[in-house]
Amino acid sequence: MEVAVLASFTSIRSVQTLVDADKARVEVRRPGHLAAHLRCLHRRGLRHPGSRSLGVSYVAVGHSERREYHGESDEVVAAKTKAAFENGIVPIVCVGEGLDVRKEGRQVEYTLAQVDGALKDLPADKAKDVVIAYEPVWAIGTGEVATPADAQEVCGAIRARLAEPVRRRALPMACACSTAAP
């Protein structure tokens, strides 16, 4: 089993030092907001010089807070996903629906659209390494509780979508599902 610590950018060096001192088998990973920085660097034809030396190998992209508070669309998430790979970092693509979508019963359709958007035009050799993280956003701070069955419904749909012939390019891939309690 592999464990990733998604520390804030300003904490990466400190977390790495603690992990190294304990000789723990935990890798330090790049936080989600830095993906925008990587994309800007990429546009200028640059690479992020410190990524590998800091032990960074994963980045969270499309986190619910980035989508909601920073207006990150599926197109932006797709661009960040590509930028992560171009910088030698594996993206963890975050998907999930809010309470309004859940109450309308559109959670599967909505989340699959996020997955499709994030993987749009991604080459097969890269798509197979993407990690999808499902977060039932509707269960955060709402008093609602996401059950394992709720998570399995969406994760099962994600797995099925990725197994479709057109999307076989994305296999094998992990689907990390989380449930949140109030």
Automatic annotation (TrEMBL):
PROSITE patterns: TIM_1, TIM_2. Pathway: Carbohydrate biosynthesis; gluconeogenesis; Carbohydrate degradation; glycolysis; D-glyceraldehyde 3-phosphate from glycerone phosphate: step 1/1. It is an enzyme of class 5 (isomerase). SUPFAM superfamilies: Triosephosphate isomerase (TIM). It catalyses: D-glyceraldehyde 3-phosphate = dihydroxyacetone phosphate. Pfam families: TIM. It is found in: Cytoplasm. Its EC number is 5.3.1.1. InterPro entries: Aldolase_TIM, TIM_sf, Triosephosphate_isomerase, Triosephosphate_isomerase_AS. Keywords: Cytoplasm, Gluconeogenesis, Glycolysis, Isomerase. It comes from the Bacteria. Belongs to the triosephosphate isomerase family. Homodimer. This is Triosephosphate isomerase.
